[in-house]
Design a protein that fits this description.
single chain; 289 residues; alpha/beta; eight-stranded mixed β-sheet; 13 helices; 8 strands; 15% strand; globular
């Protein structure tokens, strides 16, 4: 019985996830596979590379660097998060990603993107991290309206959260029967239809499938929440989520807030540590019998 880790996105809310992951890494908690969406992918890959603290470190270090993310990058390149600097220069030169550890670690790592021509999710198992692998991470985290589609093997891709925000069903289909799911919204959250639809009609007219997917995203997301509740009641998943709405915007670069969100993730993991360890250990024991 394979045990998985499912990571929702949410931009800078993902620092909550980073805090949870760092505690689990410190305690030696391992999973057979990880699937990440958007920030869940760009932050979650550090679990496979065993880099405790890296997510918070580079976000704080480069928060005011115009090469990293911001309006300047959006106006100059069409990407709020600068593609070359953020996904290539930074991990290869400035806060080095441990490619060797990632590539030798047996944990499966999957990312979710959205095909802009169909509006459907594209799932990719990323066993080997290199320049192309970094592009898969970028594609998964390329938020609509503020990112250009990423071309990989002839597919134009954007943020996986557009089409599959919490890919539990996908991971179960891959054989991960028991999963720990980290959410970046509190219990009881219910997504409403985005108020940005006029902007999608204005700026995404070339990709009608994306417009349609965004118009229905709240329905998809809320259905996935209902499925999580069902799976939790059956004992197949363990949910980790913040107590209250996280006080930070998706792209907010306030250091105090970033550290606070990260600390909230650590506190939640420490609060649930025994429950998390028990859940993972039971899953691993079941796989051996």
């Amino acid at each position: 019985m394979k045990t998985g880790l499912v990571l929702e996105g949410g931009g800078m809310r993902g620092l909550f996830t980073a805090g949870v992951m760092d505690v689990m890494m410190e305690k030696g908690i391992r999973f057979d596979g990880i699937v990440g969406v958007s920030a869940g992918a760009s932050f979650g890959c550090n679990y496979k590379s065993h880099q405790i603290g890296r997510v918070l470190r580079y976000n704080v270090r480069f928060k005011d660097d115009p090469r990293y993310m911001g309006l300047r990058s959006l106006l100059r390149t069409g990407n709020l998060v600068a593609a070359e600097f953020s996904y290539h220069t930074l991990p290869k030169e400035l806060d080095v990603f441990d490619f060797e550890t990632y590539n030798s670690d047996p944990t499966e790592f999957h990312v979710v993107c959205t095909d802009v021509l169909t509006g459907k999710p594209v799932y990719h198992r990323l066993d080997f991290m290199d320049d192309k692998g970094l592009e898969w991470i970028r594609a998964s985290a390329s938020m609509p309206l503020v990112s250009k589609p990423v071309d990989i093997d002839g597919k134009l891709l954007l943020d996986g959260g557009i089409s599959d925000s919490i890919p539990l069903r996908y991971f179960q289909e891959q054989g991960f029967e028991r999963n720990l799911v980290i959410l970046t919204q509190p219990k009881g959250f219910y997504k409403k239809k985005t108020k940005l639809m006029p902007l999608f009609h204005l700026f995404s007219s070339r990709y009608p499938a994306i417009i349609q997917a965004m118009s229905r995203r709240h329905l998809m997301y809320n259905e996935e929440l209902a499925y999580l509740e069902e799976q939790e009641s059956l004992g197949k998943i363990l949910l980790v989520y913040p107590q209250d709405a996280l006080p930070i915007g998706r792209t907010e670069q306030n250091e105090e807030k970033m550290r606070r969100i990260y600390a909230m993730g650590r506190a939640k993991a420490e609060e649930m540590l025994q429950e998390i360890q028990s859940f993972v250990e039971r899953s691993q024991l079941s796989s051996q019998t």
